[in-house]
Amino acid sequence: MLNIGAHLSSSKGFLHMGKEAVSIGGNTFQFFTRNPRGGKAKDIDPADAKALNDFMAENGFAKILAHAPYTLNPCAKDEKILEFALMAMEDDLKRMEYVPGNYYNFHPGSHVGQGAEKGIEKIAELLNKILKEEQTTTVLLETMSGKGSEVGRSFEELRAIIDRTELSDKLGVCLDTCHVYSAGYDIVSNLDGVLEEFDRVIGLQRLKAIHLNDSMMPFASNKDRHEKIGKGTIGLEAISRFICHDALKDIPMFLETPNELSGYKEEISLLRGIRGEN
Length: 278
Known about the structure:
Elements: E1 4-6, H1 14-23, E2 30-32, H2 46-58, E3 65-67, H3 79-96, E4 103-106, H4 116-130, E5 138-142, H5 155-163, E6 171-176, H6 177-182, H7 191-201, E7 207-212, E8 214-215, E9 226-227, H8 235-244, E10 253-255, H9 261-274
Parallel strand pairs: 1-10, 2-3, 3-4, 4-5, 5-6, 6-7, 7-10
Antiparallel strand pairs: 8-9
Helix pairs in contact: 1-2, 4-5
């Protein structure tokens, strides 16, 4: 079965997201842990979290994916921004234990002129402070498009972060199709080659989640502009090959396309049809 979901609003709570995921044909979902443009997080209702855990078990859910806020920059030059990243990620990982055994994804950040090597060093330093042996959550580094001073534009940069992290068994990768295509990894014409490179540099066993998006921008543009499935420069044919690839077909996939719920429902139905599941 295709493990597929979309990015849902967490404003109405955990169980609501689970039911909303099912209503659009999904068996997983992604959500922000806190305000994506700020830092405030809602208090967690333990009963609501338990209700979601029960609901997911009853409905055969794949692992769900929490997303850190966009304002978080774990390799910033400014100490106050670094302090916020440490506080937010540490708090998020504690909160994730209410829905144990799932994934937490973050953008590696921007080195803002310090250089990629310094950025990698700072990200690993932060991870070494917040990762705990007892946690059940796997933290995912997201592949980035390479705009500006972003860290994570190459598989080698993600590998360097992993190598500097003491509890690296707690780390995985979330591959964003729009981002890697924009970063210069040709998943349209050479998907097998890209996956072989990922396996050689990082290891496919670390690929835990996929952001499934088309792209508004051309190949190797270093621009992060998501498009609806089949409407962009990646195209439906390439996305079809992607979701049916033996190395990828069981990994949870999350739509971040510019859609409302009805649009997500149409895309999930389209993708399930490609996999022969309708």
